[in-house]
Hints:
Layout: H1 2-23, H2 32-35, E1 84-87, E2 93-103, E3 106-115, E4 124-126, E5 131-134, E6 139-141, E7 162-164, E8 172-180, E9 188-192, E10 199-203, E11 205-206
Parallel strand pairs: 2-11
Antiparallel strand pairs: 1-2, 2-3, 3-8, 4-7, 5-6, 5-9, 9-10
Amino acid sequence: MRTRDFQFAIAVLLVVTAGCKAREPEGQQPNPASTTPAPVTAPPVTTTTTPPPPATAAPPPATTPAPQAGTASPAAAAPAGALASQQTNWPGIVADVTEFRRKGSTLTARVVLRNQAGAEAEPDIHYGEVYVMDAAAGKKYEPLKDEKGTYIAALRSGYSDRWYQRLAPGATYTIWVKFPAPPPDVKTVTLQLPGMPPFEDLAIQDS
């Protein structure tokens, strides 16, 4: 009797033990996500931009130095059609030789007087002080006169040897005078009028 009871108790104990093992919670399975290594992220690539070279400033344009004040040319610039020009001793008056022509035995000179000043001026020409000089031959030619001794030239009314005229600002006046003609082989001479420098090396125009 005791042997059966002992065997029965052992059998019950085995059943209980097996049931406890059946109820034992299963161990937690590892999370596959936790075992997967994290992806390696490549470091960002830094692009270095080289700045363009600084612009080179263009060299400043060359400048022409301004003429100094008070500098005057010894001779006036001849306008178109004039053979030569001179400043005169009358304020603002410029003399332009526009004709110096040899025809036969006569040499004719035409001179335009221009008033470039802002006030009136009165040029005065005495023909006794007018002449043509051939420096190479050392010969002087004075203005021609008629049978009465009057100069063959532009004259002031009532005068036989003189011209003068009051010129307003901007006004012009043409005077003329005739000389004996130098020989044909003479090509340049000097014309002298009072109140102004001589017109040197003035070319003779042949008709």
